[in-house]
# Entry
Amino acid sequence: MNIAVLASGSGTNLQVLIEQLHEDTATDINISVVISDRKQAYALTRAKNAGIPTQIVRSKDYVSRVEFDAEITRHIENYSVELIVLAGFMKLFQLPFVRKYQNRIINIHPSLLPAFPGATAVADSLKKGVKVTGVTVHYVDEGVDTGPIIAQTSIPVYDTDDEESLHKRIQIEEHKLFPQVIRAHAQGNLKVIGQKVISVSSES
Ligand code: GRF
# Structure
């Protein structure tokens, strides 16, 4: 299965996907392209180091977000991508893109959704004083972090936590959960029924 990974930042999740899934013969997963909206994203360097093609698509270079999405679609089609993985990609897609790739876009989010959607989830969780937070991997729908939840891991929040320490512990769990979920999708083990995702392999 050809995968595109979209990343805006450092790309630690991308790195794990490269190490655990790229060119994996058992699952037949291949990261065929890494796309970033930021020229300086370290994720691009990680991709280049692994010999994976990269593309930069910046929203400011397009007259509208629909045009931006169209350019990403062009790359998705050029690289025969079957699954789009958002690994810290900080742009939202417009409705036509999301509809076109329904149940074929997977995102990772640093909170237990539906709590704390959006770009500042870790800071928001700390501010609210929650005692438990975690990681959510979900399919992307037209809302902000509202799509069908595939898997979650919970982690405790300590009194001593600041944003950095909490995000660091969240990322340890992200790096375990993300490859597992992508593997399950690639193997055809996930089935979306409305807002619910079930594991087909465990169906009786
Ligand atoms: C992750 O914490 C992810 O949950 C969020 O963005 C961050 C990306 O981190 N969506 P990295 O670039 O993979 O290190």
Observations:
- The chain has two domains: 1-101, 108-204.
